[in-house]
Amino acid sequence: MKRHLLFIGLCAATLTYTSSCKKESFEDMYRDPGKITETTVEKQFAGMIYSYRQLIVPEYRNLFVTLRPTIFRYLHTTGWINETNQLLPGGAAIEDRWSRYYEGLAQYRELETAYNNSVAIEKEEKRIFFLTAKILFYDQTQQTVDLHGPIPWSKAGMLSTNKSDYQNSYPAYDQPEDIYATMITDLKSISAELNKIVVGKSMTDKFKTQDIINNGDLDLWKKYCNSLRLRLLTRVAASSKFATQANQEIAEIINNQNTNPLILTNAENAQLDIFNIDDNSIHTRNIEGAFEASGWYANLASKRMIDHMVNNSDPRLPFMFEPGAKAEGKFIGLDQTKPSADQISTVNGGTLSIFNRSTYSRNHYFPGILFSATETNLLLAEYYNKSGNASAAKTAFEKSIKESIDLYKNIRSKSNNNLVPAAANPTEPAITAYINNINWDAAGNKLELIATQKWIHFNVLQTVQAWSEQRRLDFPKFDFVVQGTDIQKTVPVKFTLPPSESVYNATNYEAVKAQDNVNTKLFWDVN
Question: Is the pLDDT at 3 greater than 80, yes or no?
Answer without folding.
Answer: no
